[in-house]
Amino acid sequence: MNVLIVFAHPDPRSLNAALRDVAVAELTAQGHTVEVSDLYAMGWTAAVDRADFPQLAPDARLRIAAASSDAFAAGALTDDVTAEQDKLLRADALILQFPLWWFAMPAILKGWVDRVFAYGFAYGVGEHSDRRWGDRYGEGVLAGKRAMLVVTAGGWEPHYGPRGVNGPIDDLLFPIQHGVLHYPGYAVLPPFVAYRVDRLDDAGFDEVADRLRARMRTIETDAPIPFRRQNGGDYLIPSCELRPGLEAPGASGFALHRDERDA
């Protein structure tokens, strides 16, 4: 497989950088081709602004979705954005690797999504009618590819458990796994999460590295999170609400969008 790692940590001597190197080495040893977008090292521009749309008239109002659509259709997106889109199209699997900062990904990585996932590329594609509501949530340009998160957190694992004060880790990562990755079609693998990373000693790092190596060895075969497909019959179109009676007993919130019938 061709694997793209989009990496977001500012320090090349960080634990995250060491884990990135572990992942690259293991994937390469397994015969995969690996490409890395190191966003800080690249000097990635995070904020979307008029500079993203060179063909937009100076006096025109900046409507992001419309400007993105027009620029993508005209092949007029900036070179840095199109280079990342090309990497995504080449890759069979995408890994987003980042430290969990304030319950989310770092701003530079969110900015990579904002700019690279352009209208016509990652959203705004497909038929919108009383039968389908676009090619999204399991369909789209990136369907048939795999994706996963590699995340580090400073808190203890119980803090992110079902009753943890920070909220369940699956809920915290849902906007990324479901809303960023599943939306344009990816089959999303369960995340790799390392906890209490600020307190890791050498033995602790070795344990985390071994777990990461094991996940890299199964990236091609791991079962994805069973997110429902929007146009697969589970949702009413065009309201995109889950059909009554499909939820697991007691399920609510984000859990409604997982199909556990064959689990």
Automatic annotation (TrEMBL):
Top enzyme class, one word, equals oxidoreductase
InterPro entries found in the cross-reference section: Flavodoxin_fold (IPR003680), Flavoprotein-like_sf (IPR029039), NAD(P)H_dehydrogenase_qn (IPR051545)
Pfam family name, one: Flavodoxin_2
Q: State its Enzyme Commission number(s).
A: 1.-.-.-, 1.6.99.-
Assigned keywords, A-Z? Oxidoreductase
**Flavodoxin-like fold domain location:** 1-214
Q: Domain of life of the organism in this record?
A: Bacteria
Q: Which GO terms describe its molecular function?
A: oxidoreductase activity
Signal sequence, renumbered to the chain: none
Which family is annotated? Belongs to the NAD(P)H dehydrogenase (quinone) family.
Supply the name of the protein: NAD(P)H-dependent oxidoreductase
Lineage of the native species? Answer: Bacteria, Pseudomonadati, Pseudomonadota, Alphaproteobacteria, Hyphomicrobiales
